[in-house]
Design a protein that fits this description.
The protein has one domain. 81% of the residues lie in helices and 0% in strands. It contains 2 helices and no strands.
């Protein structure tokens, strides 16, 4: 049974593969940094939105308490309508807050994955840069010894 010969890769092909791999690593590092910046911005926006909704919810809870006390004390149509409006707005804010919580959880998982990937890419880039620095050092010139005269 004849065994197929394995072809040995040529230097030019090996150099080309190495260069494209390095270029791909640099491109991935740049894309990762860009994606991380965008995800961080989005995460900060959704976090700020969550804080805003939380403050609004607290204010509406206080308003609900005072409106319900007013409606109990003086059950006229204006007080009842004010209470209904506060309850309706509070329900809407709670619904928005629940949606925001889901978005923030998704943002957090995406952001943590991007951070880990960017850390790996940066570490690989630093290691390759250090290896290149070592490999591209010029050769030391060997000094010739002087012949001893006797």
């Amino acid at each position: 049974m004849a065994v197929a010969k394995k072809t040995v890769i040529k230097n030019a092909a090996l150099v080309k593969v190495t260069e494209t791999s390095l270029a791909n690593l640099e491109a991935a590092t740049a894309n990762g940094a860009q994606a991380l910046a965008a995800a961080t911005k989005k995460s900060k926006q959704s976090s700020a939105e969550g804080k805003r909704l939380s403050k609004k919810r607290v204010a509406l809870i206080k308003r609900n308490k005072s409106a319900s006390a007013k409606a109990k004390k003086d059950p006229v149509a204006a007080n009842k309508n004010a209470l209904k409006a506060v309850v309706k707005e509070l329900a809407a804010v709670r619904k928005d807050a629940a949606k925001n919580k889901i978005v923030r959880a998704a943002d957090f998982s995406e952001l943590s994955g991007l951070r880990a990937s960017c850390r790996r890419l940066t570490a690989y880039s630093k290691a390759i840069a250090a290896a290149d620095k070592v490999l591209n050092k010029p050769k030391k010139k060997v000094r010739r010894r002087k012949k001893a005269t006797a």
